[in-house]
Amino acid sequence: MEQVLFRHNKPGRPVTFAEYCAEGGFAALHKALKELSPDDVQRAVIDSGLRGRGGAGFPTGKKWSFVPRDLPGPRYLICNCDEMEPGTYKDRALLEANPYSLVEGMVLAGYAIGVSHAFIFIRRGYELPAANLRHAIAEAKEAGLLGRNILGSGFSMEIDIHLSAGRYICGEETALMNALEGVRANPRAKPPFPAVKGLWGRPTVVNNVETLANVPYIVANGATRFKGLATTPEGSGMKLFCPSGHVRNTVCMELPLGMTLGEIIDGPCGGMLPGKKFKACIPGGASTPYFTADHFNVPMDFDAVAKAGSRLGTGGIVVFDEQTCMVGATLNLTQFFARESCGWCTPCREGLPYVREILTRIEAGGGEPEDIEILREHVHYLNYTFCALAPGAMGPVEGLLQLFEDEIREHITKRRCPFR
Amino acid sequence: MSNAPAEEITTEEVDLTAANHVIDKYLTLHGNLMPVLQGIQDEYGYVPRPAIDLVADRLNIYPSQIFGVLTFYAQFHLKPRGRFIIRVCVGTACHVQGASRIVETFFDKLHIGHAETTPDLRYTFEKVACLGACGMAPLAMVNDATYGKMTVQKVEEIIADYNQRPMK
Asked: Is the model's pTM score more than 0.90?
């Protein structure tokens, strides 16, 4: 199977600059700066159908095209490496193996949008990826692939690394910009969208690590080839999946978009751990509603997963066996989101702890039948919050209500958790 | 009416040389508050009150704004912390692999709870989510060292190991 992001990977160590270049790395950058206009690069990314890999799945080329063309003054590119979504470790895996495709992708993106100053916003705890990136940036500069007058083209761009001080909300793109500016990372109102008014009030594009790292392949090999990597006609490209929980292989893997959930779990994941039986999984990181064995034939691609009632999200698949209490798992997720609410808007700040208390009560055996209806109301009303954190937090709660209502009722009638 | 004085504001004796160096380094950078505070946190292991006043003074920002930032982000601490920061991940992948047992074992062995520090300032313990290495669940970290596939046995080994290590 052709690999895009993992094709340079070396076992147990990061690829070196020399190896990356020898294996065709930075060829896309040479090609773009010598033969292509910024519009050509943007067009290739639009045609490739590349969609944001950070969770929302917004078409990348389209996002770039929102940046006003003729506005004088600086504009910014930010790579979002604030990978805090429980169940997600793909960006870490990618950067620990190969930081160069991100650097190359960022220069290409910067060229396409007309950016001279880019940032990588990286979460705390990712010391090795940050070190790899610092190293890669220095090497690229040394080789004239970054900095002033790149490859003699007249195009100049710098990349700065910003270490996050740590908060889940920083992954939200407008909150991220506040964090970069050095204030509390509350989300901003949209519109104006970042492409028009972002970092320091300037046009700004925020893309995920995996998204940007795909750009060199698209520029080098063409949009059609990239699109053809997916197994479904509407899909486009490969995706990093990071399985965890009760399956055998819990390593990050690059698979074509459109493989079904069952194929992924029984194939590359190696099936369930010995003696364990599949019950459910989180398909795409903590904020996505659960899938069960009934969803094994769902192609893991943005639209197909959405049609099946969940979201592809980050590709973080957390697998639960039959001994897992789904109320307990949902409580665990809700504890995370309630703690990480930034407190800016009332429904999220007050609503999430309320949901957490109800789930705690049910899990402890003190739940009442009417709690189920209260949970349902919250799933509905917490869609009307300032940003996407609370709706995301309600993803697993919604999944719990839809797929495991019996399990909640069992907790309530038995007045204890049946899995303990 | 009680005549007890209002809660006293304690003034710490802190050598601010290192903090001044950090500020010097970032003085001209656009959006420098975050790297300055991160540098001070790294130097002192927490952000001492006198350093906050210094930053406010030198960067021309209200102390209240700085407090707003310090209390928002997980990295910053207003009190001294242990030499070894033990973090146990309780994210969902770790949760379903038995993270709570690992947490309980640390509580038992260290006699401290979440976000607490041992009186000898050797250990600070924190439950965190998510450390972004779900494939190695359940996961623990001591400072920058990662320990995957944690067991009760490994908890004892880690504590035995770090009990031996020097405090400086």
From this structure: yes
